[in-house]
Structure formats: structure tokens, C-alpha cells
Amino acid sequence: MRVDVITIFPDYFGPLSLSLIGKARGTGLLDLEVHDLRTWTSDVHRTVDDTPYGGGPGMVMRPEPWGQALAAVGPGTLVVPSPVGKPFTQADAAALASLDHLIFACGRYEGIDQRVIDDAATRMPVLEVSLGDYVLFGGEVAVIVIMEAVTRLLPGVLGNADSLTEESHAAGLLEAPVYTKPASWRELDVPDVLRSGDHGRIARWRRDQALLRTASRRPDMMAGYPPSSLDKADRKT
Ligand code: ADE
């Protein structure tokens, strides 16, 4: 997968050289390049922002550098993290992981001139996504989050593909709690069932815990869980 990130803060992306993303880049599964938006400015001050039409606080990113930047790295699927985007989900991560070329546009200040997005949309798919109902300084950290979610779904990145199908959100439920050795710690014991070796009972326990956790912590998610996915034993939970 090819990924181009356009930002005024290339240094933010140091962490994308670490851990499994760094390894995916090393092995060629991920070809990621970070570009400084100011490369595409033409004035001595390398200006990327200006005051908003209509007034109001803050600054807006000017369209010209963005137009040139997107022409230079595109076309691809343009992803624009923004608090006004649609909520980013595991399904979006899976959809992005199936594409050959992603372009991330990192907005700062009050955002990017809307015409950049409207113009790009005439040439390529555009996805405006929000990580949650809060406001960050800019899109950089959001891109790191999205790239983690996407990279771990690329074939060959995770050793054990089972961990993808079993995990939280993949099945529309939160995962059950997990434990490791020692069996007893600070007078807290690992649930007996997990040490029983009875795989049927363990699967049932995990399923119950997933249902209980999801219902109590994420009623919104539980409400969207298809009743047809519940079996007879689930209904007792
Ligand atoms: N940029 C600023 N706030 C953001 C958010 N909540 N999600 C994604 N990108 C953002």
C-alpha cells in the first residue's frame, strides 16, 4: 500500500517508524511518505493560512498549496481527518486497508478551505472522518491513529490473523477481559473457567462477558447488534 501524508508538521510522524508500522515500512508492505505542505508555497514566508471569509476567530488553510500538493501526490483516496467528518470505524479501517493508495490531508487551525475538498472530489474519492466528539489541534495525531488501525489489517503485518477476527469491534461486540500468569495476584484470581481447559465452556464464558460488557458500556453498539446474531444461550445472558 502507498500512503502520502501532507502536513505542516512532518516531525509529528516519527512514531510511524516504530514498532509494527515501522516494520511494515521496512519490509515494503507499506510505502509511506510524509510531505511538508510548505513545499508547495511560492511566497518567501511560505504562507499556508489566511483569515476566514465571513469573519470569526482563527485562520483557514489557503487552497493553493493544497491544490498543488494533491496534484503532485494524487490521485488516490483522499482521507481528511476533521471534527466535522463522519465517525471513523473499524469498517472504515477495513475498507481503507483494501486500497492501493491513500492520501492524508492534515488540516490545522480552523480547517482547510472547503474548495480543496470539493475540487479533489471531482477527481478522487474523498473521506472526511472524525475520531470522536472532541477537537484536536490538527489532523496529525488522527492520521497516526488511522494508520495504526489500517496497517494492522494489511495482510502479512500481524503474525496471527485470528487475533483480527476475534478482537473488539470486528464482531460488533467488545471483547471479554483477558488474563495471564500468575493465576493469583494481589488476592485476585483468574476466573476458574479460563483454567479449566474446557474450550466449549471458555468460549461460552467469553461470549457472555462480551455481551455483558457491550450492553453495559456501549448500549449504542448493543442496540445495533442484529438480534439474528444472538443464539439461545445468549438470550439467557
Ligand atoms: N482534527 C481535529 N479534531 C479532530 C477529530 N476529532 N478527529 C479527527 N481529526 C480531527
Automatic annotation (TrEMBL):
Keywords: Cytoplasm, Methyltransferase, S-adenosyl-L-methionine, Transferase, tRNA processing. It catalyses: guanosine(37) in tRNA + S-adenosyl-L-methionine = N(1)-methylguanosine(37) in tRNA + S-adenosyl-L-homocysteine + H(+). The keyword Acyltransferase does not apply. It holds the Pfam family tRNA_m1G_MT. S-adenosyl-L-methionine binds at G107, L131, G132, D133, Y134, V135, L136. One of its GO terms (biological process) is tRNA N1-guanine methylation. It is found in: Cytoplasm. Residues 1-222 form the tRNA methyltransferase TRMD/TRM10-type domain. HAMAP family: TrmD. Belongs to the RNA methyltransferase TrmD family. PANTHER family: TRNA (GUANINE-N(1)-)-METHYLTRANSFERASE. This is tRNA (guanine-N(1)-)-methyltransferase. It comes from Paractinoplanes tereljensis.
